[in-house]
Amino acid sequence: MKALIIGGTGNISEAVSREAVDRGFELFLLNRGNTPNYVRGAHLLRANIKSPSEVDRALKGHVFDVVANFIAYTIEDVKQDIHFFRGRTKQYIFVSSTTVYDKTRALLPLRECSARAGNGWKHAEDKITCEKILIDAYEQQGFPCTIVRPAHTYDKLIPTTIGKGMDVIARLRRGAPVVIHDSGNSLWTLTHSSDFARGFVGLMGNQVTIGESFHITSNETLTWNQIYQLMAEAAGAQEYNPVHIPGSFIERCDKSLGMEITRDKAFSSVYTNEKIKWYVPDFVCNMPFFYGIRLSLQKLDRGELPMDSDNDIDRRIDRIINAWQSSIDAGIDAYNKPLSKK
User: Fold this and answer.
1) How far apart are CA 77 and CA 60, in angstroms?
2) Which residues of 161-181 are buried (b: 16+ CB within 10 A; e: fewer)?
3) Radius of gyration, CA atoms only, the chain
4) Which residues of the chain have pLDDT under 50?
5) What is the pLDDT of residue 305?
6) What are the structural domains, with CATH classification, of the chain?
7) Structure pTM?
8) What's the rounded Cα separation, in Å, for the pair 70 and 126?
9) Are 138 and 85 in contact (CB under 8 A)?
């Protein structure tokens, strides 16, 4: 089976590429070629997906059984893919996100049919619109799309509440305080990329899945307190200093950091995987977070992961912590003052 993956070097797509090659797919990766290709057996088509002329040149003479795009985020991206791949593939898989679910009112566990709403978060709203465009193209023009919604998937990326994973690990290792939103007791689902890949590749080339949507997650549910405790242990932290701060306060201080919490991570996210298991009977998740995070940190310490720390975000986290502690002190002082008589 001939497959094309757009991307192929990312947190999720690299694992999917490896799994596809292991299962005997004739795999092509379309990317700019700036990141080393660690997927042995895959063929590189060098092009910038944002450049129609480069893509047309790279795809010349190719027809695929399945195309999967891991780096489509906008309406323009999806419309361009429909143009590129109509008549060039028997199946197009759009990688969406479980952020499309309206977690403010959804009943748990979340299902593929659960209500969707972006609630003012552009990332989620764009993904919802992209899904609608693709389903319309399927229903009106027969464009053979399948939609996959990953949840919080880790491996090359470290899971966090705010900031970048590498920054959080660095803070844990030097004993600096780390932010956990609210009480830290909301439930969260983390999935290792190797487990996700098993379900995803099971959908590739499966014509019965066309017109359908799937989320692919593990069934391990942890609180954010447990997640950070396990990360601290895996990182070898000598001191663990969590600071619990309301997500609404974080958003008031720093909207770009806080919005992902108040629109997504503040809500419990538990999923049923009945649908993917029905279509891919051999799908099973074998990687508990306790073990998976240790594998990620081993890769980090061997220099196999990019050290994409961000000093600016690190400073912003310090400022949020200082602001919260100052507000607590001011609040206690205000509470201890006698009320003025009216």
Assistant:
1) 20
2) bbbbbbbbbebbeeebbbbbb
3) 22
4) none
5) 82
6) 2-324 (3.40.50.720)
7) 0.94
8) 15
9) no
